[in-house]
Specification:
The protein is of the alpha/beta class. Helix content is 38%, strand content 22%. The protein is globular and about 40 Å long. The N and C termini lie close together (7 Å).
């Protein structure tokens, strides 16, 4: 049984809703799941999980949230080798550039992206929900 950490930052609640969908799907598939806001997670906690689903919306100029999520990501990313990793987040403008940049950064670090990232405009719709559920099931 995999142990999954779902770690997110959310300003409007959309990415939080996405995190809950991933967590519930993984639990239903048999995983042990813990959900954390970005400020609650640290490098020391990474070792306790087989897989991580990380969620952050697009902020500013198509970037990760800079005060809580980005510092957490910068702290843990060197500890993620060998872990299953999936990325998700919502946006209100643009075309998903922040997520493509984040995915590219993870790949350049040699991290294993277990499933395709999931993005949606605003709150998750049916298509995004289906993809998030599949992400949770695959990480389980």
């Amino acid at each position: 049984m995999n142990k999954l950490a779902v770690v997110y930052w959310s300003g409007t609640g959309n990415t939080q809703e996405m995190a809950q969908i991933v967590a519930e799907a993984a639990k239903a598939a048999g995983a042990m799941v813990e959900v954390f806001e970005a400020l609650q997670f640290s490098k020391e906690k990474v070792a306790g999980f087989d897989a991580l689903a990380l969620g952050c919306p697009s902020m500013g100029d198509d970037e990760l949230e800079e005060f809580e999520f980005r510092p957490m990501w910068d702290e843990i990313k060197s500890s993620l080798r060998g872990k299953k990793l999936s990325l998700f987040g919502s946006y209100d403008w643009g075309d998903g550039l922040w997520m493509r940049n984040w995915e590219q950064e993870a790949e350049q670090l040699g991290l294993f992206l277990h499933s395709p990232y999931v993005i949606c405009v605003g709150a998750p719709d049916k298509e995004a929900t289906d993809k998030l559920e599949k992400m949770g099931q695959e990480l389980a």
